[in-house]
Amino acid sequence: MKAAIISIGDELLIGQTVNTNAAWLGKELSSRGIPVYASWAIADDPEEIITAIDQLRTKVGLILMTGGLGPTKDDLTKHTLTKYFNTELEIVPEVLVRIEEFFAKRGREMLDVNVQQAALPKDCTVLHNYHGTACGMWFEKDGCVIISMPGVPYEMKGIMMDEVFPKLKDHFELSEIYHQTLMTQGIGESFLAEQFKDWETKVRDRGFGLAYLPSPGLVRLRITSNQGKKDATEIQNLLTEVFEELPRNAYCIGEKSIFEFVGDLLKKNKMTIGTIESCTGGHIAEQIVSIPGSSVYFEGGIIAYSYDQKVKLVGVNQEDLLKHGAVSEEIIRQMATNGRLKLGVDVCIATSGIAGPDGGTEDKPVGSVWIAVATKDEVVLKLFRFGDNRERNIHMTALSAMNLVRCQLQGISFEKKID
Amino acid sequence: MKAAIISIGDELLIGQTVNTNAAWLGKELSSRGIPVYASWAIADDPEEIITAIDQLRTKVGLILMTGGLGPTKDDLTKHTLTKYFNTELEIVPEVLVRIEEFFAKRGREMLDVNVQQAALPKDCTVLHNYHGTACGMWFEKDGCVIISMPGVPYEMKGIMMDEVFPKLKDHFELSEIYHQTLMTQGIGESFLAEQFKDWETKVRDRGFGLAYLPSPGLVRLRITSNQGKKDATEIQNLLTEVFEELPRNAYCIGEKSIFEFVGDLLKKNKMTIGTIESCTGGHIAEQIVSIPGSSVYFEGGIIAYSYDQKVKLVGVNQEDLLKHGAVSEEIIRQMATNGRLKLGVDVCIATSGIAGPDGGTEDKPVGSVWIAVATKDEVVLKLFRFGDNRERNIHMTALSAMNLVRCQLQGISFEKKID
Fold it and tell me: 0.95 exceeded by the pTM?
């Protein structure tokens, strides 16, 4: 059984919105063993919607459509589908109640257009939306399941997780796919591939799928079996071989962000953490805080962006700052050690670097970033050389900093060196 | 004349790569008056490539394909097109020289697979790639131009700018599309639609396209004319009508993030800004810093996540904190006013709220967030009620805070009230 994705919306075609929905759906479907045959973005146009469904339903058993279900007039999908399936709209009382609650909870007035969102085609299975007011709809035609959802990403994701995936499991007999993933930070895809060439052959000879899934600063190594959970132990053992070879890079087996992993370590050790950020401008703290429950270990931080704030808020020595510059071993050390005392935390991360696009020098090109991690026993510091891209440099710094914290908490030594 | 985009690659279908190429092409094409009819992502499969071309060339005059031209084995597009156009491959000496130079410059060894990249179909116009080794190809069939380019974004963009757009201008007589967008914050799509119902009718009666483009916390209102720039003034006037009705929500005409807009305001006023964040945990600072050049106005901030840090770093009164709780009018006021002095900035943003998923009470449910903005003259404070989603609440808080700053800098009054 294959799936097709239809993303509806002029904003996708004119490039005002990047189609992250299609990527998310592709990832979730393929991880559940449903291959994606094609992913089409089309206009908010009844004729185009119908043509797309008619063409794709001859090729696949499942069509997932997103977009065109909002309350405003440019949203046509619901009416188009109602006509296509030769049915009519009818207010669903249960949905109306939920929409009313949605507005009441937010202290907002409910308008007639919102009432109309409770009107749904008679012949569909309603897919409830617990994050917004536009429901999803599940139709069937000649053996093909056709699902329509709103285009707002977190609403669509909510409907998929709450409603669609459980129903799909019941509806289709899916071949059971089993994945397991090794998470690594700070080592490139080609280095991994080179270092584990023989291991890769072994994995493939066993009939497993192997994928290197790189994103800036991280590579996930995923083994897939189409025999299901019975291969779990064998796959775990294979990944453990790589895990044990790479103590500085491989941080866990199983999908987990390094922020969550370090959070768990801190909780286990009953330790607190804080941040003194310059070039990352709050990104590390933000990523730590994005983990629910982080208030147990995250105390707070200082964003010491300007020279002034480094002196005033963190107590960096002004003379040293002028002598060495903010992006220096001396200053990063002071930021981490003074910061730890100021914040009164067990572990303090400090960052100072040149994120770009401007500000680089011959000595310290754009992408040079010092990271330090101070505990009561020691300060670990390291100079990294990332690339030209500001956003990427900031993100790589955050990931590298968390990996340094992890190594320190786990007693994995890190020589101080240029990476 | 319309265009279609075909993005080739399994990595797009399984969601390993987000299709930013399609968004970029959509934006560039529509800004040059070429509407995009559809954008398809398909598998690295000869049959699928041919089916897609055959279906789309009956609908459009231009097909832009990306992907499948690299040196590795899974890249099939070139061979598929050579067969499709009934021609053969032939080494192009000029291209071979450039590939040789490319490798020499980087001090890398050239492999046979790289030599083969200079082999191109006899019947195509070569589109030179000055950023990589895989050339683009321009074919024509029954009045449809079919272009194939590599999928690496900066190589594709280079070929489009250097080669494709100049050639397209010569080849087609293009109808010119013109868009303009009004940016709003803090007002829902349905409220906008309701409030501007008559205006919407006027816009549509005039023959313009109108779209509401919502994302959490923001709605963009876009008017489109297919008569090109000659309608610019009329569209500007139409958007200005809405802009003037919504001083607290509409912040500018033209695509600009609110962080950038506020940054420009601060620069113009030669003012500095700082942040005292609790529930947003650094997100506001991070978003401010993500704008290149923000170091001119952004001084720094404090992430006062725990009670302790609010007292220690920001100087909030401990008794008041225990009496009122962190999410209260009294404490947010102290955070903003004390914070402004601590940071020594002209404008200080403070946030304190319950981002969720836990921590809500009957009085202060999840999603309750106080935001304050302090200047030397006044403190504006406002209690917001967002929803249940932590990530969304944090982002909505950041956007709302920036909008409060904007209103204050522009002298737009904001009553203190529950929203």
Answer: no
